[in-house]
Structures are given as C-alpha cells and as structure tokens.
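Newbie here. two chains, one complex. Structure please?
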Amino acid sequence: QVQLVQSGPEVKKPGASVRVSCTTSGYTFTNFGISWVRQAPGQGLEWMGWISGYNGNTKYTEKFQGRLTLTTDASTTTAFMELRSLRSDDTAIYFCARSTAAALGYWGQGTLVTVSS
Amino acid sequence: QSVLTQPPSVSGAPGQTVIISCTANSSIIGATFDMHWYQQFPGTAPKLLIYGNTNRPSGVPGRFSGSKSGTSASLAITGLQAEDEADYYCQSYDRSLRALFGSGTKVTVL
C-alpha cells in the first residue's frame, strides 16, 4: 500500500534552516509528484509547493519563493523540503502528500517544526 | 477576499444532512476547475474525501457526496454521525496550477 513516512519533530532557532524528509513506498516514485502543505497551530491548511517525482520540476507558492527548496532522491524514493531563514510564524506541522487524480490522495503523518529562541 | 470561501462552521443533529459550501474566486481559479474535499481530525493528517467534484475514493462512506455548479462547490454529509465531527477543507488550483485550500469548516454534531 502507498505510504509516506516523514522525519521527526524539529526545534530550530529563528534564522536557521530546517530540512524535512518524506520517504515513500508502495508505488512508482517517478509517476507522481509530491506536494508540501503546512498547518500552523489552530489554523488551516496552506499549500507550499510541489515537485515532480519524474524530473524534479518544481512549483512554489509566491509566499515562499526564495526561502523554500523542494528536492527528491529517486534512488531512495524520498522527497525533501528545506525552509530557510525560519521565523516564529513558521512554527507549524508540515505534511507531504502524493497526488491522486489531481487531488492529494495520500499524506504523510506530519512533522512538527517549532521555531523558538 | 479569500480565493476559496467556506463557512467557518456548520452543525447538525445526528441523522440530519449538513452542506458545506466552497465559493471560488473565478478570476483566480478560472472558469473551469475541479474541487476536492478533505476531512481532518485534530492531530492527524487530512484525508481525501471527494476528488474531481463528485468522486469518492475507495473506503469513503456513501453519506459523503460532492457537487459543483458554476463557481461554487458543495460537500454534503447525509445522515450525519458523531464520528463526522471534524474539519473539512475544499481545494483547487489557480491558473498557474498552484494548489489552494479553503479556510476550512468545522462540523459539529449536536
């Protein structure tokens, strides 16, 4: 079955960077893209960006342009999300999700990133 | 103005039908778009409930149904159950194929 397993919680200081991994299994990695979605405490879902599992093409929401980098490693079927210059309002749960018929059909369990001095 | 507008909350008694609306800003989403719906319980990842406006993934109960008309989409829960108390989000894409979520609707079972 399709599974997306994310790396563990992170605590970072303002100005630092964080890298979250999303290891996939149960499907052909290169056939689907991975989106990253975050959810701040008590808030709604916010789409951050998408990366193709086939060729690494990316699409980012304007809000994160310049701070966000999405990458993949097809040899380990893993996607990565790196967010730089962290601020306190970046504190959130970060999810990876695989596309299914243009929707997000499979989700990782989420990774809590806390930004605090 | 939000791109995808949802009511903050809806409520209903067990057995009733509740409908959650999602109105799209067509200048950003475009004239033809598909809407997807997700259910989220506190502390868990969202779950795909409806894709392509009306389609239910395998395993989603039949009491959940989606519809779309013009620039609005709706999620109906027929025969509301206590276990349906959760947050629900609509989702689509803008003209640049960037995903967008609605602000979410909390469903309360009275």
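Moderator note: The longest strand of chain B covers residues 86-93. The mean pLDDT of chain B is 94. Thread marked as resolved.
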